[in-house]
Amino acid sequence: MGERLAGTVADAREAAPAAPAVLRVIIDAKRFPALGEAPPRHVLGPLRLTLRAHEVLVVTGPSGCGKTTLLNLVAGLDDELDGRIERPGQGRLAYVFQEPRLLPWRTVAQNLALVLPAGPDRAARIAKALAEVGLAEAATTYASRLSLGMARRVALARAFVVEPDLLLLDEPFASLDRATAQRLRLLLLDLLETRRAAALFVTHDLEEAVMLGDRLVVLTASPASVATELPIALDPAARRDEAAVAARTAELRGALRDLGSLP
Ligand SMILES: Nc1ncnc2c1ncn2[C@@H]1O[C@H](COP(=O)(O)OP(=O)(O)O)[C@@H](O)[C@H]1O
Ligand SMILES: [Mg+2]
């Protein structure tokens, strides 16, 4: 009887609705070939990550450890690796690069139009995406005339306008002043909660990780593998409460220090 009960409990746990994986990263090794005088470099791996639907996984680690290389592999911009990138369910992917990468000679709306297939609702979708990031008025402004903060908002709108299932973000708020960065974090939080995209979010900022992430992965120096993985798990109200974020950040910083993997 006891055994049967235990079996029932285990079955019930297994039957709990775990969100399906949207991404599996299985990297044995990522190497860059020798180029001129530079020797070949083993940059990443062994490295394994799984990302579930609607989950925001924050990736941090020392500068040069291979975070951007990882995102490029996931995006399929680079496909030379020992290992594989699996995207079960195949959904739509969007990538917010480390630099906004807008076409300066195109307007804001035209920059968004480039990522959307032609269709009767294209203009409306662009207008809605720009309104969501507070840039409705800037639709006809040339990208070359935008401040960095505005350009980063356009980059977010361009990512969300495709209604991605998987969003890649590479230090999207770097080199902004504190107030602008905080406004954009709140904006991203709203967008993620509304669209429920899964995200792989690279940042150096632990406080930003706590505010936006569900789970934190700290990578080792190159060749990067997972040094530490920790849950973050603040509820939506706490993510918007600076004191709660600061408290959880201090806790995580302490845990990481004890583990010797403070980024
Ligand atoms: N195309 C490339 N060819 C050779 N080496 C590269 C290339 N891209 C990046 N690297 C090297 O790979 C390492 C990881 O780079 P990167 O992924 O940009 O690191 P991170 O984003 O973590 O700062 C760095 O040493 C970088 O110089
Ligand atoms: Mg990088």
How many domain units?
1
Strand order of the largest sheet: 6-7-8-4-9-10
Identify the overall geometry.
globular
With helices defined by DSSP (H or I, 4 residues minimum), what is the helix count? 9
| CATH homologous superfamily identity | P-loop containing nucleotide triphosphate hydrolases
Ligand catalogue? adenosine-5'-diphosphate, magnesium ion
Question: How would you describe what is shown here?
Answer:
There is one protein chain. Helix 6 (178-195) links the parallel strand 7 and strand 8 (198-202). The termini are far apart. The protein contains nine helices and ten strands. The chain has one domain (18-259): Rossmann fold (3-Layer(aba) Sandwich), CATH 3.40.50.300. It is globular and about 50 Å long. The relative contact order is 0.16. By secondary structure, the protein is α/β, with parallel strands linked by helices. The chain has helices at residues 2-15, 67-75, 108-113, 122-132, 148-160, 178-195, 206-212, 236-239, 242-259, and strands at residues 21-32, 41-44, 47-52, 56-60, 82-86, 93-96, 166-170, 198-202, 215-219, 226-231. It binds adenosine-5'-diphosphate and magnesium ion (MG). Residues 32, 41, 43, 63-69, 222 line the site of adenosine-5'-diphosphate.
